[in-house]
Fold these 2 entries.
Entry 1:
Amino acid sequence: MHNCQILRTFATKIENLITMATQEETFKKIVAHCKEYGFVFPSSEIYDGLGAVYDYAQNGVELKNNIKRYWWDSMTLLHENIVGIDAAIFMHPTTWKASGHVDAFNDPLIDNRDSKKRYRADVLIEEQLAKIEDKINKEVEKAHKRFGESFDEAQFRATNGRVLEHQAKWDALHQRYSDAMNKMDLDELKQIILDEEIVCPISGTRNWTDVRQFNLMFSTDMGSTADGAMKIYLRPETAQGIFVNYLNVQKTGRMKIPFGIAQIGKAFRNEIVARQFIFRMREFEQMEMQFFIKPGTEMEWFEHWKQFRLKWHKALGLGDEKYRYHDHEKLAHYANAATDIEFQMPFGFKEVEGIHSRTNFDLSQHAKYSGKKIEYFDPEMNQSYTPYVIETSIGVDRMFLSIMCSAYQEEQLEGGDTRVVLHLPAVLAPVKACVMPLVKKDGLPEKAREIMDMLKFDFKTTYDEKDSIGKRYRRQDAIGTPFCITVDHDTLTDGCVTVRYRDTMQQDRVRIEDLHELIRKATDMKLLYRKLMTE
Ligand code: ATP
């Protein structure tokens, strides 16, 4: 290699390492910020926490509730054919036999004998695939820099020797991996790990155990005596609570196909490797909607929900370029189409939501195991059938994390000052306005309280009189409060306050009677609903 080229390659490598380190650093800061400013705490922290279980704190719970409201309303308010339910977490154990979770909700796990660390075998191999992909992307990036505007990426990918070599390696590994996963051939998964010389990131060794299956469901006993006790599970998804209630809802609600049932609730998975903060938890919350349709119309509805769900995400204004679809190549046994909506987290594009065409698998299975007829009589066709289902399934916690990651910013201000600010969408912000008397005397606190009392029925409002105004602004910036309202001596005579805006830091003099409308205009969820309803 030419000296210049060696230097360029070296520089690119360093650049990439720096970007990765910076992103990792930013992520650590976001996690620390979540704790310091009352968004997310480790569960039972006084006992050193519990792996991959977290509590939402005073600000976190407000943000989370706002996310849930946005989702719930956009399903049940905006769609007259979608209704909600709230099913119990405990369900009859046969539910999980019928759904396939008892037999097939497994992850292949492998241990490293030296570090005693446990990994998902499939994740180790997927990381290896990602490394090859990374190499290809770096070649493309380098060539892009070299050729500038005239660069033809498609042609480069189809003809460059090094890219083709990496691509052939990727294709072969991917094929072998897909075959092994489809057959759940555990010996083959181990052999791939050995052949690819994958090492444990902690010990650096290849001293692996065999690959074993691990069921992700938590179980417990229901009943007072050991003899009479029944083994039940904590639900690993909320969807089954909807399927087993399909007939009840359809009949009591006189629902006509197509119609949907929405639900928000906790789900539990005994994840083997839990990491990346609230991205992969053992207790988490899902927002799922099952849409029941006529067989044969599933591709049309799948496309419809794919579009609608992406629009829902984009309406928040976090940046359209931060989302992408990831269509599944390997489909679950019950699905005939599936895609993920991925969001650009500091640790890469990651799944936030899944949209699945589940055929009539679940309803048919429940009909088989319960012995009940679970069908729909279609008056137009004058015949009965088992409805097909399109599912949209999003994790509240991953949604929360994506919002925090895109909102968090460290800003350099004029005069060398810095501030940490959460540019949260105003409609989701935990606190909409903070009212602050300039000083703690001369009747200003009383006036500030009066303003707060006027606003608090409609908006989450707080009051702060401690420290300098500058420090109080910073505290509100750090939790993403869009409006700070300062009451000063002039307020008592001119009936105006100073409104300071979080994002621009600009200040305006506003009449007290105009405050309500000013805040409403920026924080009303109807703004989002209207966006969703326009084409
Ligand atoms: P992954 O591949 O990341 O394990 P999954 O495909 O198993 O996710 P689904 O079963 O499709 O996830 O669940 C739907 C949604 O529930 C996911 O898109 C995600 O937002 C959320 N979710 C799933 N598992 C977890 C978890 N352990 N912690 C937090 N959220 C989760």
Note: Residues 3-36 form the longest helix (34 residues).
Entry 2:
Amino acid sequence: MAIILKSRREIEAIRRSGQLAREVLERLGEMVRPGVTTGALDEAAHRMITQRGAYPSPLHYNGFPRSICTSINEVVCHGIPGDRELKEGDIVNIDVTTCLAGYHGDCSRTFPVGRVVDDARKLVEVTEECLRRGIRAVRPGDSIHVIGAAIQELADECGYGIVQEFCGHGIGRNFHEEPAVLHYRSDRSTARHKRVRSVIMKPGMVFTIEPMINAGHPGTRVLEDGWTAVTLDGSLSAQFEHTIAVTEAGFDILTALDGAY
Ligand code: MF3
Ligand code: CO
Ligand code: CO
């Protein structure tokens, strides 16, 4: 249950996996248009990932039935690909996690389908900026709670709700490991908040940051299928995710193109 620090070699292995996940995510993004089913995106992802000798981490993970998650509009996360067709005006988060040579890499983006209304576009843009602000807060020696604090500052400004039921996570040989990375401020005196504040970032820590931001209330519920998480109030939700290594100098985005962001 402790945080597993990664060696340079392991970080390079996570980067190789993460770069595959990013490439697949980009290809899927190019497929996004009205009429495409989420099942077709899933099948393309499965093909690309297995062709490269990797495994799609979500498949059969705790019983999840598909290779990627596709979360449309009010779906917060863990949407199951199927027959649903994307339609003009939707926003869809595609979350790709690969396991290559024993190491996981995890990233997601939210894509607009065709033309979307201004409110949806703004939510997507602000959510990506929330991820950037969270990443920029990563620095060795600081408590991990600075990440959520940075994200909350921007979300509050926009009147958006930050989902609390799902968080970022350590990653490496395991898809999900310690530490939990909260996307909101943890300044209360509860056990959970104290625990988050006590985690100090160190070089060699590798974790995801993956804020889920709702246009309305932050609350969520899970549908009958046991996976699909939706907003309680039916408002739109967006998410972006990267896998990050803490370095001596700050951070290294293992799922970004050329390390840039
Ligand atoms: N990729 C998701 C994450 O960011 C987890 C999906 S779990 C699954 O952590 F079982 F739904 F695949
Ligand atoms: Co993740
Ligand atoms: Co993910």
Note: The mean pLDDT is 97.
